[in-house]
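chain below, 402 aa
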Amino acid sequence: MKTAVIGGGAAGFFLAINLKEMMPEMEVTIFERSQQVLAKVAVSGGGRCNCTNSFAAVSDLSQVYPRGHRLLKRLFNVFDYEDAYRWFEEHGVPLVTQDDECVFPQAQDSHAIIDCFLSLARRYHIEIRQKARIDSLDTLSDFDFVAVTTGGSPKGEGLRWLAEQGHEIEAPVPSLFTFSIADSRLHALQGLVVKDTSVHIPGTKLRAEGALLITHWGLSGPAILRLSSYAARHLADSDYRASLSINWLQRNETDTQSAIYEMAAHEPQKLLTTCNPFNLQQRLWTYLVEKTLAERATVRWAELNKKDVNRLVNVLTNDAYDIAGRAPFKDEFVTCGGVSLKAVSPATLESKHVPHLYFAGEVLDIDGVTGGFNFQAAWTTAYTVATSILRTCSASATRQTH
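prediction:
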């Protein structure tokens, strides 16, 4: 029996290795379009490879998987994050869990994952064909099974041959990216990280929380990347032009107002710009005060009037910006969209249109927020396909014996 794996990325190698461990007699060939395999793994997580997450802070998968959470909830019964953690440790890659629940190789180097995969591929005699473009099943007629693990297809061209086979395709669009903000005063704060913020797109239920990074082009950091994932299709439909609201404190208006009046009562003679009750970085506090009060930014706390307080509360809890476009987050570029989940069997990930054709990884319309969730989806779907092929072979062997 022979299996072709189209795609030499994380999901492709994980599928091929697990299939060989389940069925040593299976011949497995990986077809990679480019010269380099596992290139995305190498740059992920800043070169450290955030390979999964502890999920300790996740109460519902929809929180971290804007698309595909229902399917993954089912497939986690087959192979979940605990299984992935155990799998890597048993295959010689010790892992560590950070305070933010992200899981990395103990070596803090993505090559720990890459070397593991390549070593196992050699051990199991998995053939790797590089610079091999596959855009038709006709070229794979010698194989009994085909698994497509080609990853995202930002322009959609790589999915055309699958659409021609009858598979429904959800239009691919970027789902992890930073926001361009046309505000030179904000850009002057580049490099500043605000740990606890909440961001949302007004008029929608799209919101996210976490750290926010100010850059020379606008805004980045976990909060923005999460919001970009939740709002991927909304922002694509609006040509990446939308309003953005930031709560710099993760506090409500009442608590913020109380803190301002308390500061005014306790430090009445101090200058507003030099003393703040919220432990915000001085540069950010000064920027927000000057942005809000203009010429009155130099007053003392005792000189604040009711209108000043209301304006400060609003900028701290509902600061408004205009998103002027997107910038790619180079380390972890992900797309939503791909082969529709309606086109595959939810239990096996086998095509409903072509027998013995399977899908795993980002080629499916499954994507997660930043934090190791996309890799976990790759491990789970790849393992599911491997077990599905095993069951099909076992069932066929049983029928033949009878």
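The longest strand covers residues 319-328. The two ends are 20 Å apart (CA to CA).
thats it, cya
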